[in-house]
Design goal:
By secondary structure, the chain is an alpha/beta fold. Helices cover 47% and strands 18% of the residues. The chain contains 16 helices and 13 strands. The radius of gyration is 30 Å and the shape is flat.
Length: 479
C-alpha cells in the first residue's frame, strides 16, 4: 500500500554547516510548505509550476493576535510536483542556513502543520512503491551514498541506472514467454500438443544459465570492490612492517622502533590504488615469546592472515645469511601449504643495505622457494627509502580482476542479489534437466515458476513488508 502521510526529514548530514536541506514528500507537501513560507515577491507557491525555485522566509504564523509571525530564516524553496519527482509524489525541498537550531525549528514547525518524521530510507521506499525505481536500483542508492572509491562508485552508478535490472528483466521476460506456452500446454493436456519449441527453449535455458553463472562469479570481484581488499603484512619482529605501512599510506600511522615487539596489536588503514580500496593490516611480529600481551598479538596475526585476501610476507634482507635463509624458506612453505590459493608476496625489505651480488643471490634463492606463479611473487623494496613501493602497489592491483569493471560489465555486489541468483540458477538447472529427461509439462512449470520468483525477488516484482523493512532500515534518514 502506498503511504498517504506527508513525511519530513533533514536530507543533509546532521550538524552545523553552510546550508542544510529539509525535504518534504507527500500529497500535502506543497500545501503544508505554503502555510509556513512567505515569498519575497508575494507568490502563492500552491499555484507555481513544478521544478521551480522561490526565495522567501520560513515563518510561524501561529502567534498571538495582533503580532507578526515569527521568522526563522530566509530560504530557497524548490517545488517538484508528482509524478515528476524523486519519490513520484509532491516534493518540497527547503534550503536554509545550516544552524542546527534553525534546522530543528523548521522541522518542528512542519511537524506541527501536519507532516510526520520520515523513517530511514522512506523517501527511496516511496520512489520504489511509486515505480520510480525498482528494488535493485533503490538498493544502489544506499551503495552510492556509501561509495568511498572510484570502483564502488562506478558499480553503484551502473546499478542505479538500471544496468543490472535490465539484464535480469530481459531474462525474466524471455523465460516468462516460454512459461506461458508451457502453461498453455497444460490446458490442452488431453490433446497432447506442444506450443513451446523445445529446441528454442533449451537454447534459452543455456543462455540464461551462462548469464547467471557470469553474474554469480562477478560477486567475488564485487564484494572486494565494495568492502575493500584486506592485505595482511606479516613477518618476524623488527623487519619493517610498520615502516612499510607508513610508506604505503605516506603518513606516520604505525609506531616505528628498533625494539622488537613494538606492535602488539593489529593496526589497520585504507589506501585507494587506482580506484580500488585496499585495507592494510600491520600485524604483530611472529616469534617465540613469553610476554603474555605480545603472545595475544601474535595469535591475532594468524587470525588476520586467515581473513586477508592477500598476504605480504616481509623479510629483512639485512639480517639474511646462509643460516637464516632456511628459516625464511620454512616460513614461506608454511604459509603456502596452509593457504595454497591465497596470493602471497615475498617482500624483501632493506635491499639498500645489500650489495648487488648479495641481493641477486637472495632473490634467486627465495624466488625458487616461492615457486613463483601468478599468485606468488617476490618484490624488493626499501620501506625506509620508499623505493619499490609503486611496484608493490601495482602487484597488489594485479591480484584483483578489474577486467569486468574496465569493460563496464554488470558486477554483483549485493549479498541478497547473489543469494537470489544462486537460487534462480538452481531452478534453471532443474528445468534444463527436466527438459532433457522429458518430464511432464506440469512438473517443469513448477520449476519455471520458482525461477521466475527468484528473478522477481531481485527487482522487487516479488516482495514483502519484511524484506522491504530489512533493506530500507539500513538507509540514512532523509534519503
Amino acid at each position: 500500500m502506498i503511504p498517504q502521510e506527508t513525511i519530513v526529514a533533514l536530507a543533509t548530514p546532521s550538524g552545523a554547516g553552510a546550508i542544510a536541506i529539509i525535504r518534504l514528500s507527500g500529497a500535502a507537501a506543497i500545501s503544508i510548505a505554503a502555510e509556513v513560507f512567505q515569498s519575497v515577491s508575494g507568490k502563492d507557491i500552491t499555484k507555481q509550476k513544478t521544478h521551480t525555485l522561490h526565495l522567501g522566509h520560513i515563518m510561524d504564523p501561529s502567534t498571538s493576535s495582533g503580532q507578526a509571525g515569527k521568522i526563522y530564516d530566509q530560504v530557497l524553496l524548490s517545488i517538484f510536483k508528482g509524478p515528476n519527482s524523486y519519490t513520484g509524489e509532491n516534493v518540497v525541498e527547503i534550503s536554509c542556513h545550516g544552524s542546527t537550531f534553525i534546522q530543528q525549528q523548521i522541522i518542528q514547525l512542519l511537524l506541527r502543520k501536519g507532516s510526520k518524521m520520515a523513517q530511514p530510507g522512506e523517501f527511496t521506499l516511496r520512489a520504489f512503491l511509486n515505480g520510480k525505481l525498482d528494488l535493485s536500483q533503490a538498493e544502489a542508492v544506499a551503495d552510492l551514498i556509501a561509495s568511498d572509491n572510484e570502483a564502488s562508485h562506478q558499480i553503484a552508478m551502473q546499478q542505479m541506472r538500471g544496468g543490472f535490472s535490465n539484464e535480469i528483466a530481459k531474462l525474466r521476460e524471455e523465460l516468462l514467454n516460454f512459461a506461458s506456452l508451457i502453461e498453455l500446454e497444460l490446458d490442452f493436456a488431453e490433446e497432447d500438443v506442444e506450443f513451446a519449441d523445445r529446441t528454442q527453449f533449451h537454447e534459452l535455458l543455456e543462455r540464461i544459465e551462462f548469464v547467471l553463472k557470469r553474474l554469480i562469479d562477478s560477486f567475488a570481484v564485487g564484494n572486494v570492490i565494495k568492502n575493500g581488499i584486506p592485505v595482511a603484512i606479516v613477518g618476524e619482529p623488527n623487519v619493517g612492517k610498520s615502516t612499510l605501512l607508513n610508506a604505503l599510506l605516506n603518513e606516520e600511522r604505525a609506531i616505528v622502533s628498533d625494539i622488537a615487539g613494538t606492535t602488539r596489536d593489529t593496526i589497520e588503514d585504507e589506501l585507494i590504488i587506482e580506484g580500488m580500496s585496499f585495507r592494510f593490516i600491520d600485524t604483530a611480529g611472529i616469534r617465540e615469546t613469553k610476554d603474555v600481551v605480545e603472545s595475544i598479538g601474535i595469535q591475532k596475526t594468524f587470525e588476520k592472515i586467515e581473513q586477508a585476501q592477500v598476504v605480504l610476507l616481509l623479510v629483512d634482507s639485512s639480517q639474511l645469511s646462509v643460516d637464516s635463509l632456511p628459516k625464511v624458506k620454512i616460513e614461506i612453505e608454511k604459509i603456502r601449504n596452509k593457504f595454497p590459493i591465497k596470493p602471497l608476496v615475498i617482500v624483501l625489505n632493506k635491499v639498500d643495505t645489500l650489495s648487488a651480488e648479495k641481493a641477486n643471490d637472495y632473490i634467486t634463492q627465495l624466488t625458487d622457494a616461492q615457486q613463483k606463479t601468478e599468485n606468488r611473487k617476490l618484490i624488493t623494496i626499501s620501506a625506509k627509502q620508499k623505493t619499490g613501493i609503486e611496484e608493490l602497489k601495482n602487484t597488489l592491483l594485479s591480484f584483483v580482476n578489474t577486467g569486468a569493471l574496465r569493460n563496464n560489465e554488470t558486477i554483483v555486489t549485493n549479498t541478497r542479489h547473489y543469494d537470489s541468483l544462486l537460487k534462480a540458477l538452481e531452478e534453471i538447472q532443474k528445468v534444463k534437466w527436466g527438459l532433457d529427461s522429458g518430464i511432464s509439462s506440469d512438473l517443469m512449470a513448477i520449476d519455471i515458476r520458482q525461477a521466475l520468483f527468484h528473478f522477481g525477488e531481485i527487482t522487487g516484482q516479488v516482495s514483502n513488508d519484511e524484506l522491504l523493512g530489512n533493506i530500507f532500515a539500513n538507509f540514512c534518514i532523509g534519503k
